[in-house]
Amino acid sequence: MPELPEVEALAGFLRERAVGRTVLDVEVPAFQALKTVDPPVAALRGLALRDVARHGKFLDLAFGEPGLHLVVHLARGGWLRWRDDLAGARPARPGKGPLAARVRFTPGETGRTPGFELTEAGTQKRLAIHVVRDPAEVPGIATLGPDPLADDFTPEVLGRIVGGSRTRIKGLLRDQKVIAGIGNAYSDEVLHAARMSPFKIAGTLTDAQVAGLHEAIVTTLREAVERARGLAAADLKAEKRGGLRVHGRTGEPCPVCGDVIREVSFADSSLQYCPTCQTGGRPLADRRMSRLLK
């Protein structure tokens, strides 16, 4: 699933490649992905892309002035693919293949028709597309928590978030209404950097642990953003996998201490952690309501 660093990189990529271009056509063959009807998708035709922003994991393309916003949430299996020339692309067929949407811009000086496609792999179709006048009209954006890379996301803010919470810290970090942009992969990375068990109760953190967790959140995400900066959209997935130290690396040695990275599996996801770095050397029981083995 694309998380804050990848969506930030996609926004930067589109700012470089697409800002100033005018929409020639928009196709949305995945009808279930389109979550709005007014304004219609066709209203984007003829509008120039003026900016691209990120809200948590949402990608926000602003067209015209004041104009409209094409807001995309890529969910678990979604991705954005830039194409230098879509002039010869076959018409999109509803229900056929991974293509969810296609945006073509007017031909440039080279005569080619650039644009991008939104695709979604897998059977669970959760990619969401909104055409709105204001991004705040998108329910998921309206309820987002603070952005962890914003200047006003301080240790004091994090302290208020975790204070009194009975939620396990792994779940709290992934809750978009609490902190925006962190998902399964980067929550594993943050907790490893903070040397903290994923099942630690958030409200039990000391001031020193809150400060350490804040540092881990900011540093982990900023480093990931820097690694992704300037990469083509097609290269971002591989960069993410290569930059992760514990997530997705079950059975490999921890890059910090050399212990074997372990996994806890759930119904539709899993987490990875280092016992030596995070749980005092004790493995976590691999079941949904896991607790430290005695």
Task: Report what the structure shows.
The chain has 2 domains: 139 residues, Alpha-Beta Barrel (N-terminal domain of MutM-like DNA repair proteins), CATH 3.20.190.10; 124 residues, Helicase, Ruva Protein, domain 3, CATH 1.10.8. It is elongated. Helix content is 26%, strand content 19%. With 294 residues, the chain is of the alpha+beta class. Helix 3 packs across helix 6. The protein has a 4-stranded antiparallel beta sheet, with no helix packed on it. A 4-stranded antiparallel beta sheet has the order 2-3-4-8, with helices on one face. A two-stranded antiparallel sheet has the order 9-10.
The structure class reads alpha+beta
Total beta strands: 10
What can be said about the biggest beta sheet?
4 strands, antiparallel
Strand adjacency order, main sheet: 1-6-7-5
Can you tell me the CATH topology of the largest domain? N-terminal domain of MutM-like DNA repair proteins
Order of helices and strands: HEEEEEEEEHHHHHHEEH
Outline the low-pLDDT stretches.
288-294
Separation, N- and C-terminal Cα atoms: 34 Å
Count up the domains: 2
Radius of gyration: 21 Å
Number of DSSP helices?
8
Q: How much helical structure, as a percent, in the residues?
A: 25-40%
Shape assignment: elongated
Q: Averaging pLDDT over every residue, what do you get?
A: 93
Proportion of beta-strand residues = 15-25%
Per CATH, which architecture of the largest domain? Alpha-Beta Barrel
Region (Disordered): 91-114
Protein name: DNA-(Apurinic or apyrimidinic site) lyase /formamidopyrimidine-DNA glycosylase
Catalytic activity: Hydrolysis of DNA containing ring-opened 7-methylguanine residues, releasing 2,6-diamino-4-hydroxy-5-(N-methyl)formamidopyrimidine
Domain Formamidopyrimidine-DNA glycosylase catalytic: 2-95
